[in-house]
Amino acid sequence: MSSIGPGVERILQYFDSKQGKKTLIVAVIAASLLVTSFIYAKKTVHIAVDGQTLQVVTFYGDPQRVLKQASIQLSPQDEYRLSTPKLTEGSVIEVFRAVPVFVSYQGKNAKVQTAKPTVEETVMLLGLAGPGWKLVPERNARISPGMQIQAIQVVELIEENEEPVEYQTVRQPDPALESGQEEVLQEGRPGLKKVTVKKRLEDGNEVSSEILHEEIVTPATDRILRAGSRDMVETSRGALRFKRMMIMEATAYLPTDGPGHGITASGVPARRGVVAVDPGVIPLGSRVFIPGYGVALAADTGGAIIGDKIDLCMEAAAEAWQFGRRDVKVYVLDD
């Protein structure tokens, strides 16, 4: 008599049937896959935390469970980041401990407990990120405990302004007027221009501006003057008009000096008021004025009088001797 119960016998009969054999094969395959996946789920990962790196062998696929396995506690503000999309062999879990930092913005000061690694990510907690903010330290600077962060609001404005265009003063030389005299021929009027400017504001304060475009709306009208070009020099006889002035080396001579026996190269008698010149510099017959000597006639020449040199005729030897050699201003007078 068989010792196998009827229930067990039915199970054996089922697995002995065609359908039972199929079911058994599927069960064996499923069990094999389960064992294989369990074996391959084993992995070695690294945890960077509190300045050290831990190596952990785990079967978990959830980073939080791996951290718990390694007895690493996270506060509500602490964060972690995984080096790979999923936890696999060689993955690194980096733990960021929350530290206090201080953020100043728009006249406010905020203390923030953050585990974010950079300045930019930290200020994002306050809604201050984006191109509209300038951050000090820079955006990618690493966070450190007690760090002072300044968030400066940046605004760029485009403005169109109307500005005056200054008129120019034009002087037209006029020899009919003495030097220094002026007459208005046309009054000047300022013009108008439209200027497009880009301004940069930081926390409401303008820090830079750039002119993008200028357009003349109304041209300016020049102020036109007649400007006297007739040069005058004051003498004991009054103001005299001159054509040019030169600095010359002057000496003195007496009427009896030289081979002319008192007659100059131009044939006039040598006397006070007659000077010897280089005709290539001052033409003979020109009237000149020398301060301290007076008005004279360029009527003589001399072998040593070449270039910017002039010889003044004196009446007395003592006067000539006292005069000696000196630089003088020589005004060539108008005819």
From TrEMBL:
Keywords tagged on the record: Membrane, Signal, Transmembrane, Transmembrane helix
Coiled-coil ranges (or none): none
Domain G5, residue spans: 151-231
GO molecular function: hydrolase activity, hydrolyzing O-glycosyl compounds
One Pfam family from the record: 3D
GO cellular component: outer membrane
Entry-linked Gene3D superfamilies: Resuscitation-promoting factor rpfb (2.20.230.10), RlpA-like domain (2.40.40.10)
Annotated TM spans: 23-41
Signal peptide residues on this chain, from the entry's feature table: none
GO BP field: peptidoglycan turnover
CDD domains, A to Z: DPBB_YuiC-like
Name used for this protein in its record: 3D domain protein
